[in-house]
Design brief:
12-stranded mixed sheet, alpha+beta, 5 helices, 17% helix, 39% strand
Length: 264
Amino acid sequence: MSQSTFKYWTPLCFSMALALILGIGAAAGNAAEKPKGYMDPLAVEVLENVSDHLARAKAFSMKAKTLYDHVLESGVIVTFAKDVALYVQRPDKFLAIISGDNLSQRRVFFDGKSLVRFDVNKNTYQKLSYEGDIDQLLDYIIDNYDLQLPLADFIYNDIANAMKESIISSEYLGERIVGGAPCHHLSFESTGADWQLWVQKWDKPIPRRFTINYVNIDGNPQYLGMFEEWRLVPGFDERMFTFKPPPGAKEVELKKAAASKTVQ
């Protein structure tokens, strides 16, 4: 059974305080008037539309700029940034390229047979042998391993199904402009966090902005993802999804999951 990664995210995960304010305006007052547990059919419909649109693509790529909070032991919140490039080929291949503002460089490969997380700076890698599709892999590592994956919910073959399993309530908040494009603004309450999604209108319902507010965690850490450069394509050269260790690369242990984990 698919499980959204929302319920597993911890304070070390994504976000940004300002992101939660953007685009809400007067609609926030209306949201408060809805009964707890209210499922807005329009919000669910838009979520399903974006899921179906991306599922129909045999392959796609996109880039995202992310800002996320880290809560220190002192309670002070510091914000970090990462640039993420994702290449996904249905049903069982993806490559994620992650660049941090601390100059860290990571790559995550999945070719349908094994998952590899490569730390470019340290020239080390972690490898997990696993045969299956993307959805099966993500569910498996969420339950079993302490492994960071970027924007994991957006590479599921069935995005709506992965997200809806943890949704408690939802609401359609109207139309907003994101990156010059008219978008539907959706708000969701889930078992692990409150989150919002801005989806481009018309015949190309692609995500444009994504925010998470971890309301059950001290400090209410938050996350912002801005999506750009979406490309829906017939496919990629499959060799790009298979990791080949560079000279001197060392394999290190892939740790089993602790009671809580971080997904970035």
